[in-house]
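Researcher: Here's the sequence for the chain we discussed earlier.
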Amino acid sequence: MLQYYELQPNDDIEYKKKHRALKIKLQDETVKTILIDDTDTVEAIVKVIGEKLSMTNADEFSLREEGKEDWLTQTKPLHEQGVGDDVMLLFKKKFYISDAQVSMDDPLALHLVYVESRDAILNGSHPCTQDEAVMFGALQSQVVLGNWVKDRKVESKEYLPTMYHKYLKKLEPLIQREHKKLTGTKDSSAKYRYVQLCRSLKTYGITFFSVKQQTRNAKKQRKVRLGITREGLLLVDEETGDSIKDYKLTQLRRWAAAPTILTLDFGDHEEDYMTLQTEKAEEISKLVGGYIDLLLKKRNGQSTTLKLY
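Model: Thanks. This is the structure I predict for it:
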């Protein structure tokens, strides 16, 4: 009965279809149309997308609006977050937990992780050495062009991280040489080797946030980068890139997010709470909670309820 919902005079009720076609864009720019229940939460929608795409690690992906950096809230439906019917959503990897299990037996999962890794290498999100850059360029050449062909004109700049473009003349023949060695390598094998090489980098699987840390016994703050991984949290000096300290997720006792303040309690592993100033406090809190939730689910093989302080 309508009276059950305690509707008031002059309240508006929206009459619309329960199901709708949702357009999502994958990391490789492919657009898919999925029929969803508009009352489902984002978490449920991600699961439906994973089933439609026959993915085994869909719970490590999430949705966000094209052109925006913030992820949609997992526990709310799209309409409660102002996502209209004509909005394009990006289906991207948010958590890095089971990448080690990605294999050539799951072509789509391998492809998406490869594209994510390739983009991170090219835009400099994962810094690498020149030798590694050459190998990445050769593997990408094999994926895109197939086997090496003598005297074929190749835009090697497209296969190099931005930071190495100024060394193009030096590195181009090296990429060609390594590409030639890959002759006969299948597309899936080249993607797999690319992902494995990317996973060996120190920064792989880390989501960084620029924050200001309140220093102990001092009023001033220092600029640091807070990294979140499936293993824990680490602090890196903003200017030098040197590691300051790292913590295991198991050492984190509780955390609290205010609009611009994130408080972390590491129990006996720190003398006091760690206080960080950032506009991304809520986003960091959700990412930490998401990692803990996923790790517990995978460990116990069942759903868990997380208490976010």
